[in-house]
# Entry
Amino acid sequence: MRVALGNDHRGYPIRGKVLEVLERLGHDIVDVGTFSSEPVDYPDIAERVGRMISNGEADRAILICGTGLGMCISANKVAGVRAAPCHDDLTAEMSRRHNDANVLCLSADTLGERLIDRMIEIWLSTPFEGGRHARRVGKISLIEEEAKKWLPDNCQS
Ligand code: RB5
# Structure
């Protein structure tokens, strides 16, 4: 799978662990950084990675910030992104089974290395269940379509 990785300065301390897990699992990694603890703005990274999901450059993505929340809120503004802030095995699994999440948002402040390892493995290997969940995920896309109608013509591309 082609997996994009993005982090801000607060996510920087755990990006090495995330890269190690992705490499071990044999995924193709598109690493957009940031590559140091120099402060950056998480929406810039989230937008860049979100667009990679939206245009098919990446199949899935992992975003890391202090809490995982700023990245998640920002990425979910990009059409086609279903970003989930996950904290444990269960949320990692269910975000795939029920929500077909395509972006995993991690908190560098709260997650330990063993948990990160397990969550990524679970999240990348768990299928979407489809069925009634496909109907619900379809309704999320409809909200997105509806929101586009509220944009002025010169904002649509
Ligand atoms: C950056 O200071 C911090 O706000 C960011 O990493 C993240 O936790 C935001 O949600």
In short: DSSP finds six helices and five strands in the chain. The beta strands are 2-7, 28-31, 60-65, 83-85, 103-107. The longest strand covers residues 2-7. The pocket of D-ribose is lined by residues 8, 10, 42, 65-67, 69-70 (CB under 6 Å).
